[in-house]
Automatic annotation (TrEMBL), chain A:
Protein name: Transcriptional regulator
Location of the ChsH2 rubredoxin-like zinc ribbon domain: 14-44
Protein source organism: Methanolobus vulcani
Regions crossing the membrane: none
Domain ChsH2 C-terminal OB-fold: 52-112
InterPro entries on file: ChsH2_C, ChsH2_Znr, NA-bd_OB-fold, Thioester_dehydratase-like
Pfam families the record matches: OB_ChsH2_C, zf-ChsH2
Automatic annotation (TrEMBL), chain B:
Organism lineage string: Archaea, Methanobacteriati, Methanobacteriota, Stenosarchaea group, Methanomicrobia
Organism: Methanolobus vulcani
Pathway given in the UniProt record: Metabolic intermediate biosynthesis; (R)-mevalonate biosynthesis; (R)-mevalonate from acetyl-CoA: step 2/3
Top-level taxon of the source organism: Archaea
Protein's name according to its UniProt entry: Hydroxymethylglutaryl-CoA synthase
InterPro entries (alphabetical): ACP_syn_III_C, HMG_CoA_synth_N, HMG_CoA_Synthase, Thiolase-like
Positions contributing to CoA binding: R202, K242
Domain called Hydroxymethylglutaryl-coenzyme A synthase N-terminal: residue spans: 2-167
Length: 132, 349
């Protein structure tokens, strides 16, 4: 069972649903998850919200056979690092047959259930990736 | 002023189970079932898909197909009989995930298999009155059928979204009129807290489906003074292949008219998405000027009939999102055990 407080999930909800991160207009760097301050430009940076297309490629992956609590019904599943076209990398489930995933494979985003807090708690939704 | 469809989008999960596989588990004769139901296989959701994720995928496809500024959407209504929450709207999830929030009204609709078309009608009213600019009406379901029940052979997963507007230059199809026929007929229900619906068996046919579909359809044709021959295509709610084929015959529509929209043999019954999927599949291949007659049915019971004329704009947007035929192509077949796992029928601790 995933235990995450409702406000904690809700605060990052838009980022998870729509891949909204940030972009520094000064140095043209993109951030996901969103950063409020550009680590390179510091106080000179100009941060704006940025919605990623979600297109990217698989940097690396692993196949999970022994899952954490709450994910037992999904094994075997693929967990990978996706590098988005704009630059930032993120960890996500990749929805495909485990034997078909490859490093460098192009992926696109889909809207899926990320988990749920047991039978009574909230359902967490967000972005996962599928082969393009 | 015209009201109609500005865009549409469909979504079908990639997994299917064959009727043969379900019949094997319950000792039924698959050939008799397939011939009787005119359904060969049905769509199965992935383990992490539900009515909300399907509604979002359909809604995003609709918004992308016509490149709509989601901020123009003033209402989001999602029709489903499998909303993931008993209390908490699916439509807020859809609105947020399509970028339509926060200035809009939203609510969930429920009317068995016609909740989606009821949402279309509500949006037609809101755009006609000028209360909103665009309305997003969705029918999405991960339909439930109890293990071993007749429903299990057809209850499928899928969703369709329509963006409804009133600016003639934007419409890909004009909805000339709609007509509903509703009575209190308890042919299908699910009580609070129960996992699977119950139904009245054969009672769902004559006093349920056929009475409401034919009365809604005849009512609309009388109102518009049209005849079946005036339409190029027709779509009737498709809980199986037999019912819409029979309803079409009763009303005087031909097999050719219903053929493009009859997706149930390869898809199953997507409940709130069923008739709307048939309309989407028809729009996928209709030409400008073609007329489509559609009637949805929801147990409980009611029929919603629509008369639709396709405009020149359809050719501009059609290829910008996956067509129903593409969504039905290249499925991954699963056996009954995998299907049971995907549907959460197997409980782990």
């Amino acid at each position: 069972m995933i235990i995450m407080s409702v406000p904690r999930f809700w605060r990052k909800q838009i980022a998870r649903y729509n891949l909204v991160g940030t972009h520094c207009k000064k140095c043209d760097e993109y951030f996901y998850p969103p950063r409020n301050m550009c680590p390179a430009c510091r106080r000179e940076g100009e941060i704006e919200d940025y919605k990623f297309s979600g297109n990217g490629e698989v940097v690396t992956f692993t196949v999970i056979h022994t899952a954490a609590e709450g994910f037992e019904n999904q094994t075997p599943y693929v967990l990978g690092i996706i590098k988005l076209d704009e630059g930032p990398s993120l960890t996500s489930q990749i929805i495909c047959e485990p034997e078909t995933v490859k490093i460098g494979m192009k992926v696109k985003p889909v809207f899926r259930k990320l988990g749920q807090a047991g039978e009574r708690g909230m359902i967490y939704y967000g972005t996962k990736f599928v082969p393009e | 002023m015209s009201v109609g469809i500005v865009s549409y989008g469909a979504y079908v999960p990639k997994y299917r189970i064959k009727v043969d596989d379900i019949a094997r588990v319950w000792g039924d004769d698959a050939e008799i079932l397939k011939a009787g139901l005119m359904v060969n296989e049905k769509a199965v959701p992935d383990v992490d898909e539900d009515a909300a994720t399907i509604a979002v995928e359909a809604a995003r496809a609709a918004v992308n197909r016509s490149d709509i500024d989601a901020q123009r959407i003033g209402a989001v209504y999602t029709g489903s009989e499998s909303h993931p929450y008993a209390v908490k709207p699916t439509s807020t999830i859809v609105a947020e995930a399509t970028g339509a929030t926060p200035v809009l009204t939203a609510a969930d609709f429920e009317f068995a298999c016609k909740a989606g078309t009821a949402a279309v009608q509500a949006c037609m009213g809101l755009v006609s009155s000028g209360m909103i600019d665009l309305g997003l009406a969705i029918g999405a379901d991960v339909a439930q059928g109890a293990p071993g029940d007749a429903l299990e052979y057809t209850a499928a997963a899928g969703g369709v979204a329509y963006v409804i507007g009133n600016k003639e230059s934007e419409l890909v199809a004009i909805i000339e009129d709609t007509y509903s026929f509703t009575t209190d007929t308890p042919d299908f229900w699910r009580r609070e807290g129960m996992p699977y619906p119950e139904h009245g068996g054969r009672f769902t046919g004559e006093p349920g489906y056929f009475k409401h579909v034919t009365n809604a359809a005849k009512g609309l044709m009388n109102k518009l003074e049209t005849k079946p021959e005036d339409y190029d295509y027709a779509v009737f709610h498709q809980p199986n292949g037999k019912f819409p084929s029979r309803a079409a015959k009763m009303l005087g529509f031909s097999k050719e008219q219903i053929k493009p929209g009859l997706v149930v043999p390869r898809l199953g019954n997507t409940y709130s998405g069923s008739c709307m999927m048939g309309i989407a599949a028809t729009l996928d291949q209709a030409k400008p000027g073609d007329r489509i007659f559609a009637t949805a049915f929801g147990s409980g019971a009611g029929g919603d009939a629509f008369s639709i004329t396709v405009t020149d704009k359809i050719d501009e947007i059609r290829d910008n999102a996956p067509k129903v035929e593409e969504l039905l192509a290249d499925p991954i077949y699963v056996d009954y055990a995998t299907y049971a796992r995907h549907k959460g029928k197997i409980k782990i601790a």
